[in-house]
Task: inverse folding
């Protein structure tokens, strides 16, 4: 059931267009992740929904009612700021209870609620600590508790874990998601980190240059990314545009790597413009001298970088006249390549996936 | 334009300025320039005269040098108060601001009592080394004028810079240290740029005071050190060339406005949102022995700075060869049966209530103006900022006459009313509130207000719960300054007020202008009393806390 509906929102600051015609719906109880590179308009979109900025055109409605002219304090939303914006002159209790005090909740009820929230974020007994005495992760959790305390109808989180180190971020992602689900709050979560988006979201929205490029469940988007940019945002590095042609003998695709033969099963129904995705685990680079001319789909290139990452060797090969980058993941024992080596990369036809361009 | 509450609020300082600044200024300037045919004639005469060009040049450079000297004295003391905890800090802080409040004539007397040929220091040196003649001769030298300016104004630097410094997150400095910067380089490259808005703020005030310096020059300097303000006084009061005096006052204002514009522009460029942390997270007790020595030396330096005033107290308490309280007792008796006699209790009460009223008005006008000026990315902010500071750059003499002309008959008749005095005092005091508040307001992260709004706070409640606690410290500093300016104000009080409203500086002046050793002694006794009242007032303001938020 639709709770929040954005319709054709536009917002510019002078000549810079920040949000360019965004339409989006969020359902009750859902966690939606806005994923996109920094500067793509995610934060501005949140500020529009929060009422901190006014849209140039378009409308925002919540639970069927327009939010036009409703000031931030009357929207009943929560926002966790990128730099947290904790009140430096209050202790943890003062920060978390601020929203309840503004709503004039009875004192003892507010105190109980704050106590419960602090327990939920693992900060029981921290009430009297000053903000400057807390660690980064503790501050993050105080900010989360503060934004949850007044019981917001919608919670927005603007890169809330951005400043933390990886391991802390990963453990907090799990904690934050379970808290949001426990409270049952509808949430919009902004991030530029795809792993965080996968970990947090029920549904993902990829933004580019102020516009929504694709929205859907993470696994659906993974299966059929709408564009090269979406594919890259999802971590599919070997994505490029191409043109598919089918003959009686075989199916081929013309792309930056040259002409490649592809498996004819499961490919788009019609010839023409496609998005080419190559499985990085199955593209196999070998020293150029070992190349066997008989195989289809070799491309020649130069190794640009080689690094050990999460138990695998990641090799980046520059291919063709445009020096197109091709990423290959290899088992550690199989690769004897180093930077600058001339290689020939073999791409099995069934490692190539084509998606009809939209 | 619709009338939002915000726009109505900004009308308050504008109406105040129009009534108590622009109107009297136009009244006196209009009247003075009335006789000249084209109105431009006096300006042509002034700017064609190498004497007055020389005065403009002298006024400017002596103000610049005085400001540098003031910063050199004030910054180390600001550091001491901002970053170190030591016993007696509150008291030392309260006392260190006293010079700023002293009427010129008292300070001059203090300097003479310390450095004059029969002063404490010379007598002491002559005794020790068996000298025939006093070794220190500073009477009527430029050095003495510059020293007096620094003495007057260093408290401005101390207060404004230390208030800002005390809440600056030290992590930037610490990270500079981690990056291999020595203490001095960390200070020059990290701390100094962060402090720049506050330093520029206080430097501007010091500059404005030195630029329009009058009393110091009149008492301690000679004719060769005349500033524009002194020249205006000469033209108006001695030569009765009112049109030239008015023209020179306008030239002075034009110069001030240009300085203010440059300053406001610099200030806006310099201000960056800095991490604001409570001062308990910043100040630390001196740890290593070397640091203790440093703190001790700085504290001692403050005492040396105060020595002219201490020697003044010493003289107030000396009768004949020994010490007694005779001069203080003398204040309470009206021996000559004067009609104008007021008991010291009444005089202190006058000073306190006028200062209290001026403080309230200055806080209201200054805080609203500062809020207006702190909003980012607005055209004309620099021009408006400079305009709000103009009362500091206008000849006090011209302004005083303006008040007389403007409010002595209809439509606005304030003859003999205390309102006129509070207006004059607050006009000189509210710029301090603006200057102390602006650096803090511009450093306040906008996200804090937004967070409060999202958590359901109305603008008023967001202000009360978020802004006010954080700016309360700066507001108190502004209040202390407003109080100080009013307590020490002398010229306007003398010109504008009825005898029964006499304030402490006026009483000091009256005693000094009567002959006799006893009157001088009583004047010094009254000066000592003024110092005590001001120091106590500061200590009281320092103790005030808003909602117990700790050191903000």
Result:
């Amino acid at each position: 059931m639709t709770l929040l509906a954005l319709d054709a929102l536009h917002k510019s600051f002078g000549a810079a267009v920040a949000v360019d015609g965004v339409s989006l719906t969020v359902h009750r109880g859902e966690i939606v992740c806005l994923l996109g590179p920094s500067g793509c308009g995610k934060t501005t979109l949140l500020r529009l929904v929060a009422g901190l900025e006014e849209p140039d055109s378009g409308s925002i409605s919540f639970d069927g009612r327009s939010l036009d002219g409703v000031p931030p304090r009357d929207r009943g939303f929560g926002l966790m700021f990128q730099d947290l914006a904790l009140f430096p002159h209050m202790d943890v209790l003062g920060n978390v209870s601020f929203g309840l005090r503004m709503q004039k909740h009875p004192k003892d009820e507010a105190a109980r609620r704050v106590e419960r929230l602090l327990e939920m974020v693992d900060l029981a007994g921290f009430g009297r600590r000053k903000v400057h005495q807390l660690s980064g992760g503790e501050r993050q959790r105080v900010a989360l508790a503060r934004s949850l305390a007044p019981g917001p109808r919608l919670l927005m989180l603007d890169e809330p874990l951005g400043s933390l180190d990886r391991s802390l971020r990963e453990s907090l992602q799990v904690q934050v998601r379970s808290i949001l689900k426990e409270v049952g709050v509808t949430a919009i979560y902004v991030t530029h980190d795809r792993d965080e988006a996968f970990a947090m979201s029920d549904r993902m929205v990829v933004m580019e240059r102020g516009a929504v490029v694709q929205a859907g469940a993470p696994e659906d988007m993974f299966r059929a990314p709408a564009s090269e940019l979406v594919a890259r945002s999802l971590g599919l590095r070997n994505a490029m545009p191409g043109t598919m042609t089918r003959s009686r003998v075989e199916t081929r695709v013309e792309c930056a790597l040259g002409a490649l033969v592809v498996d004819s099963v499961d490919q788009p129904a019609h010839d023409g413009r496609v998005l080419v995705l190559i499985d990085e685990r199955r593209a196999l680079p070998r020293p150029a001298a070992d190349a066997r001319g008989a195989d289809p789909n070799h491309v020649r290139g130069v190794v640009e970088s080689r690094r050990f990452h999460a138990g695998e060797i990641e090799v980046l090969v520059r291919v063709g006249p445009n020096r197109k980058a091709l990423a290959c993941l290899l088992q550690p024992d199989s690769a004897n390549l180093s930077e600058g080596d001339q290689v020939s990369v073999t791409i099995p036809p069934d490692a190539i996936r084509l998606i009809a361009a939209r | 334009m619709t009338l939002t509450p915000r726009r109505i609020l900004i009308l308050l300082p504008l109406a105040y300025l129009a009534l108590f600044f622009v109107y009297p200024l136009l009244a006196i300037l209009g009247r003075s320039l009335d006789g000249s045919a084209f109105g431009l004639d006096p300006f042509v005469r002034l700017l064609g005269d190498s004497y007055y060009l020389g005065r403009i040049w002298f006024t400017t450079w002596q103000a610049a040098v005085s400001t540098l000297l003031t910063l050199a004295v004030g910054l180390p003391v600001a550091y001491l108060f901002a970053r170190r905890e030591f016993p007696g800090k509150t008291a030392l802080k309260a006392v260190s601001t006293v010079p700023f409040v002293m009427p010129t004539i008292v300070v001059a007397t203090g300097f003479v009592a310390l450095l004059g040929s029969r002063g404490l220091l010379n007598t002491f040196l002559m005794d020790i080394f068996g000298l025939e003649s006093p070794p220190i001769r500073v009477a009527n030298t430029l050095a003495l004028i510059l020293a007096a300016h620094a003495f007057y104004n260093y408290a401005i630097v101390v207060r404004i810079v230390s208030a800002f410094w005390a809440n600056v997150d030290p992590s930037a400095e610490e990270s500079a240290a981690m990056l291999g910067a020595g203490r001095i380089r960390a200070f020059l490259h990290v701390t100094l740029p962060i402090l720049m808005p506050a330093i520029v703020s206080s430097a501007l005030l010091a500059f404005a005071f030195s630029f329009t310096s009058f009393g110091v020059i009149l008492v301690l300097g000679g004719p060769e050190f005349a500033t524009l303000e002194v020249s205006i006084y000469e033209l108006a009061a001695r030569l009765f060339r009112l049109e030239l005096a008015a023209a020179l006052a306008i030239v002075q204002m034009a110069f001030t406005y240009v300085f203010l514009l440059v300053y406001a522009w610099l200030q806006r460029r310099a201000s960056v949102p800095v991490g604001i942390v409570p001062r308990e997270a910043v100040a630390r007790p001196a740890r290593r022995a070397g640091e203790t020595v440093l703190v001790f030396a700085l504290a001692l330096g403050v005492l040396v700075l105060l020595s002219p005033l201490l020697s003044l107290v010493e003289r107030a308490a000396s009768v004949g060869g020994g010490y007694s309280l005779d001069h203080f007792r003398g204040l309470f008796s009206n021996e000559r049966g004067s009609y104008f006699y007021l008991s010291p209790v009444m005089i202190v009460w006058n000073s306190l209530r006028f200062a209290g009223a001026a403080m309230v008005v200055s806080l209201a006008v200054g805080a609203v103006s500062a809020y207006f000026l702190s909003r980012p990315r607005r055209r004309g902010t620099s021009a408006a900022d400079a305009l709000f500071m103009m009362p500091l750059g206008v000849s006090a003499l011209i302004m005083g006459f303006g008040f007389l002309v403007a409010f002595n008959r209809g439509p606005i008749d304030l003859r003999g009313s205390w309102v006129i005095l509070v207006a004059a005092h607050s006009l000189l005091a509210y710029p301090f509130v603006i200057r102390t508040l602006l650096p803090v307001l511009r450093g306040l992260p906008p996200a804090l207000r937004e967070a409060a709004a999202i958590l359901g706070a109305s603008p008023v409640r967001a202000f009360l719960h978020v802004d006010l606690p954080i700016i309360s410290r700066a507001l108190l500093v502004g209040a202390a300054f407003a109080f100080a300016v009013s307590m020490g104000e002398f010229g306007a009080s003398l010109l504008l007020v009825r005898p029964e409203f006499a304030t402490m500086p006026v009483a000091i002046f009256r005693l000094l202008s009567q002959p006799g050793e006893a009157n001088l002694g009583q004047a010094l006794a009254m000066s000592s009393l003024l110092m005590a009242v001001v120091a106590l007032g500061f200590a009281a303001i320092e103790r005030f806390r808003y909602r117990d938020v700790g050191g903000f």
